[in-house]
Amino acid sequence: MAMNKNMLSPVGFSFHIKKLPEFNFFVQNVTVPGVSFPVIEQPTPFKNVPRYGDHLVYGELNVSFKVNEDLGNYIEIFNWLTGLSFPDSFDQYKDLAEEGKQLTGDGLESDSYLMVLSSNMQPIIRIDFEDIFPVSLSDLIMDSRDTQIDYIEATASFRFLKYTFTPV
What CATH number was assigned to the domain covering residues 13-167? Predict the structure, then answer.
């Protein structure tokens, strides 16, 4: 197989979360999380010897998006977070689980994917994130002092079980 000498473009992608249909269109930025492998120190009489651990540790999946005018995409994530944390009643958690199963077949978590595009804007790699769920949602900053309209952007952070790469 010949080596591909083309550089990866940061604008060649599309991102989708099964549970959030309004969210997907407005995605501006996705940070594919890093992965690490904890090291275990094995004691010896002379010095500790580093040994590989037994599991991977994934960072957070951070996604920046433009907020649509009726806040629909922001509210989708807000409601997901609220349902997971059920601050007012246990029914919030139950309703989230039932709603997810009816709409997408997902319950409290959802599957997601990032499609990486080539320099010709053709799909080349699909990164699948399994069982994602939101852990934070950024502030919405409204400022009447702005002299030009820069549409509001927010960031959501997600945790997940794992991710995998699949050539397309």
Answer: 2.30.110
